[in-house]
Amino acid sequence: MRPDQLSDLAVFAAIASERSFTRAARRLGVTQSALSQTMKRLEGQLGFRLLSRTTRSVAPTAAGERLLATLSPALAGLDDEIEALSQARGAAIGTIRITTGKHAADTVLWPMLPSFMRHHPGIEVEVRVESGMTDIVAGRYDAGIRLGERLEKDMIALPIGPPLRVAVVAAPGYLSDHPAPIGPSDLTAHRCIAYGDAHGELSPWLFERDGRAVTVVPGRGPVFNDGDLLVAAAVEGLGILYILEDLVATPIVDGRLIRLLEPWCEPFPGYHLYYPDRRGTAAFELFKETLRGWKEK
């Protein structure tokens, strides 16, 4: 369709609706002559007649009626959308796509999301929970949520969560059969319950104490990619587990798990919202500021 044909088709729809060039001209605020010229041009471009005209009446031809069946709903839909956009002027609209890990989704994103969506109905939110790091540009995401220490250097990173801490834990039954580790290096001799990603890579166990950082490759044991299964395996006495402390707070309190190496588990920076540049849609900027404000509450 030629760029100028949409306005010409709207003129045709107005004439067909009014069944009169005079009334259509009054409705559109133009002259009858201008409408006649528009219809002559449109019919010439299409190669068929759209209107039958007599001295007393105007009516669509069979071809005109067929075209109107598609044209009229389309024009009405455009009018409705323009009116809706006009009424929503100043309100943020659009879609925000976020990739995040499960723990971040539960502890940082979800607490603010229901309120945000209720207050901004024009913004659609898509959240994808993924275990590994995601290329947000290739995945066409607006942003991701991950631990700050894992982000690429070319990403802008906005802190959105409190500092976190890990816990090293084991069940009393496991410790009755194995000596408790004194330092991180002792873990290589133990059965360790590890987190593994979709490619079979095991997450390293990172420790820090008084400025000294240690990375440990855990001893071989069961591997899971689900937090609930990791905790369940530890409670069953299947090995030593390294996990974010809030995920094992309850079994530590009730005695099903015992905390180990606590002096080596210092707090570290929590979750960050990361994105590739400072240019974002109005919807994303609002989402970002809301998430930042929620952190500061």
Radius of gyration: 32 Å
Low-confidence stretches: none
How many helices? The count is 10
End-to-end distance, in Å? 54 Å
Write down the overall mean pLDDT.
Answer: 86
Q: What general outline do the C-alpha atoms trace?
A: rod-shaped
Hey, roughly how much beta strand do the residues contain? Answer: 15-25%
Order of helices and strands: HHHEEHEHHEEEEHEEEEHEHEEH
How can the largest sheet be summarized?
5 strands, mixed
Percent helix, as a range, is: 25-40%
Helix and strand composition category: alpha/beta
User: What is the tally of beta strands?
Assistant: 14
Task: List the main descriptive attributes of the protein structure presented here.
alpha/beta; rod-shaped; 38% helix; 5-stranded mixed β-sheet; 10 helices; 14 strands; single chain; 297 residues
Explain what this protein looks like in three dimensions.
The longest helix is centred in the first third of the chain and has 26 residues, at 62-87. It contains ten helices and 14 strands. Strand 1 and strand 2 (58-60) form a beta hairpin. Helix 1 packs across helix 4 and helix 2 packs across helix 3 (32-46). With 297 residues, it is α/β, with parallel strands linked by helices. It has helices at residues 5-18, 21-28, 32-46, 62-87, 102-109, 113-119, 172-177, 227-235, 249-253, 282-295; strands spanning 51-53, 58-60, 94-100, 123-129, 143-147, 156-159, 166-170, 192-195, 205-209, 212-216, 223-224, 240-244, 258-260, 271-275.
